Input
Amino acid sequence: MSDPLPLFEFSKFAGIHDPRFHIGTATAAFQIEGSGHTQGRAASIWDQFHGAGHSIAGDGCAHLQHWRDDLKLVKELGFDSYRLSLSWPRLINDHDGHVAAAGVAFYRQLLQQLQQLELRAVVTLYHWDLPEYWQQQGGWCNRQTAIAFAQYAKMVAETFGDLIDTIYTINEPWVVAMLGHRSGEHAPGIQDEQAAFHCAHHLLLAHGLAVNEIRAHCSAKVGIVLNGGPCDPVTISSNDQRAAQYAYQEGTELFASPLFNGNYPELVLARHQQHLPAGWQQDLLQIQQPLDRLGLNYYCRYRISEQHGEQPGCAPLSTMGWEQSALGLYRWLTKLQRQHPLPPIEITENGIALEETLTEAGLRDPQRWHYICEHLKAVDAAICDGIDLRGYFVWTLMDNFEWGHGYSQTFGIVHVDRNTMARTPKASALALQASLKQRQQNSD
Ligand code: NOJ
Output
């Protein structure tokens, strides 16, 4: 057996050593649950997203069968929080809002077990699995979907609110709008500039409407999850600098500005105002709700050229081709903090896809462990600089369905055998487990 990976010494980092700083792991329903719509779930847009070049979800991680053991594993690994998403099409059957009893029973049991295990439940309402019956009505390009989302949020707040610590409305609206509706890499596979901005606006509106419903029906904390990172010009030419500035506005500010400052960012408006739905100005107040939390998903920084758009990152890269830059996380946090009045922040996702082989000695992933440790240090540095960070979630608990990439990209700290569905913690999971144990002992 090869040596275990070195411990992360939390005690050297006061901000994240503090037991009030939460450490968890995150998953999403469609990536792990499996069993398609055969077990009482209505179809989602990802069930439909087959065909040339697109991957099929298959069984996810058969979490529907293994969820009890999966939650126990989260506990055993030493986490205090678990971020999951609820599947809208598993909970609501149709346009008329009929609630699916089996879906309610499933999530109730799951959330109850989290409570028994004393794991803090952090729930995302929309992690990309739009019910297909709403897509048939135009999906996020139709304002009606935002209203339906608020009804779904209300149902969740009423039904499960007592079991949830924090509700995040939408996960990564940028990805939904731009990969789902501009590049078409994600479901529903639309390639249309106007669709992308209609979608972006309706996601923001959906969030704003849902916040009101959640607050009216339960006392969970409420927030939204944004993705992004700093965008750097590839050269110091003014063209590249302008392009990088634009890329940042479209990547982060398209959502952060309306959420926290009440308007779309200037450069994006100059280019895309005509792509927003008519009357968008009237929704800005509804969108800008006071929030209890901002969730941030961070993976890499971006290099931008005016001529060629986004450029490959600098080595070392992940198998997704993403640059590993913990400094980028620190820079993104400090920039966001300077530009907006923000609520307390959680890093709701951070992790890395790597190529691995299972050996006799287990699954060694020192590069992943290094990545996690460096990002934890960046979080601590940001806390020291006065940023109100409350939690950090590793993406992800186990290897799963990575959207357009199928099962080829493995982000998990736990390996999943695709044939047997057996779960095996990788060396990074074991190192984190030992480090969290030491953190716990030191703070007792
Ligand atoms: C962000 C998404 O929320 C998650 O679903 C995805 O698997 C990771 N990024 C990695 O791409």
Summary: The two ends are 32 Å apart (CA to CA). The chain has one domain: 10-443.
